[in-house]
Design goal:
By secondary structure, the protein is mostly beta strands. The chain folds into 2 domains: 2-101, no CATH class; 102-269, no CATH class. It is 1% helix and 47% strand. Strand 19 and strand 20 form a beta hairpin. The longest helix is centred in the first third of the chain and has 4 residues, at 21-24. The protein is elongated and about 65 Å long.
Length: 276
């Protein structure tokens, strides 16, 4: 069994120690023989996969701590542990299973622990972690599910104008070393420039994560492409998803592409609009 688990103290950045970056990677081809099973503890996500001939059985569940940093992989048990939601799939043959981390399938709304003001001409770099989705393939896509399910929220100026998004519990932070890093989460670098003539009070920000590709750094932790925003007035900004892994991650390599093609948004409402 490979295991990495340590609960972080308040404000502590948790980085992997012990297993190498390659060992931390839970994605890729997964060989499971007929009648065998494999279990993972991927941060807050518990995942069990079993095979019986052409049938693939999947059990998924969540721990009580969305910031859980554990990482473990074990062979077995042959039956799914209690408390997991079980799904069953019949495949055309005995194609190998392949796991892929994916970005969320909706935009994500993040907020700082305390709202802060960006003065005219100022630029800020912030960091936030979000849960990734787990896609499994066996010739065809079997499932594409969140490692942990964020809550739904509406981001817009009215109940009719806006987007259905996810609200995340992790906070937008100004210091990278205050992040809690976990194997089921990806870090997003958010760069905001206020070119307007008035201060911007930042309470919430909408991140176009479906457009962001995922990358892995040398420690086996996931990052999304960086998001750059230039605000000129009000709650609107031009938004750009930067190609490639963020500089703050160090050397990275691509793990999976974004769900939709990244595009520049000349003027887009991204700040503070929120309706419960």
């Amino acid at each position: 069994m490979l295991r990495l688990s340590r609960r972080p103290s308040s404000g502590e950045a948790v980085l992997p120690s012990g297993p190498s970056g390659d060992q931390m990677e839970w994605w890729g081809p997964t060989e499971i023989g007929d009648g065998d099973a494999v279990s993972w503890g991927i941060g807050a996500c518990s995942l069990w996969l079993g095979r019986r001939g052409q049938e693939v059985m999947v059990g998924m569940g969540e721990t009580h701590d969305p910031m859980d940093t554990r990482f473990e992989r074990t062979d077995g048990p042959s039956r799914p542990p209690g408390g997991l939601k079980l799904r069953r799939y019949v495949t055309p043959g005995d194609e190998p299973l392949h796991l892929v981390p994916r970005p969320p399938d909706r935009p994500v709304v993040a907020r700082p622990e305390t709202p802060f003001t960006i003065l005219p001409g100022a630029r800020v770099t912030a960091f936030v972690t979000t849960p990734v989705w787990i896609e499994a393939k066996a010739g065809h896509v079997l499932f594409d599910l969140p490692s942990i399910r964020p809550s739904d929220t509406w981001f817009g100026t009215s109940p009719r104008e806006g987007d259905l998004c996810y609200a995340i519990r992790s906070l937008l932070r100004l210091k990278q070393d205050t992040l809690v890093r976990a194997p089921h989460r990806a870090t997003t670098v958010v760069r905001i420039t206020n070119t307007g003539g008035d201060p911007l009070l930042l309470e919430r920000v909408r991140l176009p994560l479906p457009e962001c590709s995922l990358y892995v750094d040398g420690s086996g932790m996931l990052w999304t492409a960086a998001v750059e925003m230039v605000r000129s007035a009000g709650n609107d900004a031009s938004v750009r998803v930067v190609t490639g892994g963020p500089d703050e991650a160090g050397p990275t390599r691509l793990v999976s592409a974004g769900r939709i093609q990244a595009q520049s948004h000349p003027v887009f409402r991204v700040f503070n609009s929120f309706i419960d």
